[in-house]
Amino acid sequence: MSVTTSELPEERASSDTATLRSGSLGTADIAFFVVSAAAPLTVMAGVAPLAILLGGIGAPVGYLLAGLTLAVFAVGFTTMSRHITSGGAFYAFITRGLGRPVGIGAALLALIGYNGMEIGVYGLLASTTRDTLHSLFGTDVPWLPISLAGLVLIGYGGFRSIDFGAKLLGVLLVAETGILVLLAGGVLVKGGAHGLSLGSLAPAHVFVPGTAAVLAFAFAAFTGFESTVIYRREARDPERTVPRATYLAVGFLGLFYAFIVWVAVQAFGDDQVVRAAGKDPAGLFFTAITTYVGGWAADLMHVFIITSVIASLLAFHNAINRYALALAEEGVLPRRLGRIHPRHRSPHVAGIAQTVLGAVVVLAFWAAQADPYQQLLLWVNTPGMIGLLLLQLLAAIAVPCYFRRVSHQEGSLRTLVAPVVAAVLLATAIVLVVGHIDLFTGASPAVNTLLVIVSPVVFALGLPLAWWLRRRRPEVYAAFATEPAE
């Protein structure tokens, strides 16, 4: 009688028979991965002041609108997740809706997008850690050792079991959101600078020229929320867990972002916050928490920004590994990348490859004497962000195309109306992001043009790759994203 992998002790299962640890993740665990990837504290302290500076006191509404758009997208997205169970998530959905050539292009785009979102953040880890050490201890350290130490730490976290990662992210997420809640409590108890105001919700303050820039920042703040479906194979009762985690993550991020930005406005007052943001955008939240809570809380916020970045890195690292695993199982990437650790049940070979790739990019920027924030973070992150937005758009378009061709019992609201509305809104979001790309990068027009075209070019390369696979490896092409991964 044959013995299944699930019956083998973890220590005895070989790399060839080991599988991902099914049934390990509940709704909260998956939500932790998604929300941690967004790095709420880093987004608020590092980016929200710029949103306030450009959009004024109506900035909180921009985050609500972005959250609402992605909630509409999630309707069709999660509906399709009940019908397509491949570990390839985005590219599997797009393949089934729009065809294999488009799906293969989407697979390349997913690899570039998620790697860009993670690897660039090693520059942010270096800059925030360096700034924190200087702020707290007056010491100056080079950035390269910090980034390399981060690579080792994240590589180890991805090597361990998925439930280990979920527990770690849970602790880090509580820390970073907790410090923001502490700030909110201080502001609310003391009534803000001049009393609490709802002026941020007034149409006159929302519909201003800077709102487009706020929306661009807001959509970027949700990047990675769609990775819930990547963990389907490790989820408990995935048909319920994955949709719940998706809506929980989007709802939490949208409401939490809007609330915290509103709190920041109250901390300085409707008539003073824009001036304060313009004077010291990087210090806006630290000034607020020092005023309303105390200097010790500002020191704690500095430390928790580092842990926020670490949590984001680990979340993206795990997502990348599972995409690489799925593509290795498909035969598009080398099969070796699909090996799973017999004890930890993690895609450890894919994790090692991703860590090596990150090290190569980090070392290349260091050798070029680049700035870890201005170049490594912004120049690598920006194409990743655009790539993931393009994937969301393609997935939204794929939903009605897929359901039009198959028999199902889903309602038209989920399979047609919501996806079409989401596609229009996501296309608008991409236009806003590209139109304000200089706000994200601070780079020259030539560099910005290059950063914008990376994702479309990578996607376009999928077409000749699809042609090559169809001619040279027809069995791989024929089976691509058509069967659930084992």
UniProtKB/TrEMBL annotation:
Q: Which UniProt keywords apply?
A: Membrane, Transmembrane, Transmembrane helix
| Annotated Gene3D superfamilies | Amino acid/polyamine transporter I
Give the principal location in a single coarse category.
membrane
Q: Where in the cell is it found?
A: Membrane
Domain of life where this protein originates: Bacteria
InterPro entries, A to Z: AA-permease/SLC12A_dom, APC_superfamily
What is the topology of this protein in the membrane according to its UniProt annotation? Answer: Multi-pass membrane protein
Query: For the Amino acid permease/ SLC12A domain, which residue ranges apply?
Result: 34-474
One record GO biological process: transmembrane transport
The regions listed as transmembrane in this protein's record are 30-55, 61-81, 102-122, 142-159, 168-189, 201-225, 245-265, 285-316, 349-368, 380-403, 415-437, 449-469
Ranges for the region named Disordered are 1-20
GO cellular component terms, semicolon-separated:
membrane
**Record keyword Transmembrane helix present:** yes
Looking up PANTHER family in the UniProt record yields:
AMINO ACID PERMEASE (PTHR42770:SF16), AMINO ACID TRANSPORTER-RELATED (PTHR42770)
The protein's name is Amino acid transporter
**Lineage of the species this protein comes from:** Bacteria, Bacillati, Actinomycetota, Actinomycetes, Kitasatosporales
